[in-house]
Amino acid sequence: MLPGRIIANLFATLFLAAFVASVFFVFGRPLWPERHAKMVILLPVDTMATGSLRKACIEPCLPARFDLRLAPARPHG
């Protein structure tokens, strides 16, 4: 192999490595997505805020209003 071809292949390899590195640097993300766990934390049921069974009611007696601060947020995704 001629020395000129060796030098040309070396420069081509270095150029390809620099191009791949610049693509990762510019876009800042890997080619495959990073996996995240999706978790929902359920709070214990508060019978006074959600609903209760009373002896006077045949069906479940619900309160006049609900406290939405006790409800967990919807999961994203």
The number of distinct helices, counting runs of at least 4 residues, comes to 2
Order of helices and strands: HH
As a percent range, the share of helical residues equals 25-40%
Please indicate the percent range of residues in DSSP E strands (runs of 2 or more): under 5%
Determine Rg (CA atoms, Å).
31 Å
Structure characterization notes:
The chain has helices at residues 3-27, 47-50. The chain is an all-alpha fold and 77 residues long. The longest helix has 25 residues, at 3-27. The protein is rod-shaped.
What is the topology?
Layout: H1 3-27, H2 47-50
Essential attributes:
single chain; 77 residues; mainly alpha; 38% helix; rod-shaped
Short description:
About 40% of the residues lie in helices and about 0% in strands. By secondary structure, the protein is an all-alpha fold.
